[in-house]
């Protein structure tokens, strides 16, 4: 009797083991791979009205060449000059080289900064001496009172002649604006100075990714 009980117990255990093995074979293990998606590239601010801006900022210009420089290999130098870590948008730089026939007149660069009511796009003209020749607002969502302050001709002219090495202090070497426009004006000032630093750094050191110049416009 005891032997019969032990026999059936052993057989039952064997059947359970076989059933478990069959279930593992019929249900293959699914491997789950964990992936971290790379950050999306930040779109660079476009130059929306090149012909009109070129004539206004560089009278006598006849053409421009678009050039892109990769700055990701210069992050340590940029960090030292900017006083902060470069943003994702500062990993590359679009340069629009302005010419009168074969004579180089300067460079146009664009920038998107954060105003109180959204993005502010500015177009900055830089001479061969790396001084600001002029600039204009390209696009903005700021209300009329802020736009009036940012578009004031005297305030815009205060940028002219400045380089990346100037202090760029709003309320000192850059005139103060109405309190309602203070934050947006500070963003524009910082954006203009950062552009000058990016251009100076890109022009003074070869970028690891090289520079591409493939677009010619007349």
Give me the secondary-structure topology:
Elements: H1 2-26, H2 50-57, E1 63-70, H3 75-82, E2 92-100, E3 103-115, E4 118-126, E5 132-140, H4 144-150, H5 153-157, H6 182-204, E6 211-217
Antiparallel strand pairs: 1-2, 1-6, 2-3, 3-4, 4-5
Summarize the structure.
It contains six helices and six strands. It is an alpha+beta fold and 218 residues long.
Rg value: 31 Å
* Beta content: 25-35%
Class by helix and strand content?
Answer: alpha+beta
Order of helical and strand elements: HHEHEEEEHHHE
Strand order of the largest sheet: 5-4-3-2-1-6
How many DSSP helices? 6
Number of strands: 6
| Broad shape | globular
| Rounded mean pLDDT score | 84
| Largest sheet report | 6 strands, antiparallel
Can you give the helix content as a percent range?
A: 25-40%
Distance between the termini: 106 Å
Uncertain ranges: 22-42, 207-214
